[in-house]
Amino acid sequence: MADEVLSLREIQGACWIVLALLTAGAFFVVSASFAWSVLAGGVVSNISFLISQKDIKRFVESITSFSEPEDRKAKAKQGQKGYLLKFWLRIVIIGVVLFLFIKSGVVNIFGLILGLSTVVLAITFVSLNVLRRYYFSGRR
Fold this sequence. Notes:
Strand content: under 5%
Mean pLDDT: 82
Radius of gyration: 19 Å
Helix content: over 70%
Number of strands: 0
Number of helices: 5
Distance between the termini: 22 Å
Shape: flat
């Protein structure tokens, strides 16, 4: 369990580091408005990832707190509905926020997409780092 928590913390930290690097790079290579777009998309993406991770953790902990399989099954059904409702609500809120950003014209769409990809990039980097540590530790 400690490795899993460390990995989630590592991914969360990597998300913010990737966002900072992408924003700085966009500012120096492209423009300030492009960097703002990257930052806006990255903040939306990172906050959504953080909330999603907490919701999933809470859902799993609520199910595993029961020792009887019947109790777990009942709690899982109940919790699944709540989780799915929160999930779709989060998707709608993200959609509205992105719509407002794009409709207002305050963001560059390509910068926004780059910012929204920060979680994917961070997970890729952390996964490659875990693979590198495994490969070079001699555990093969």
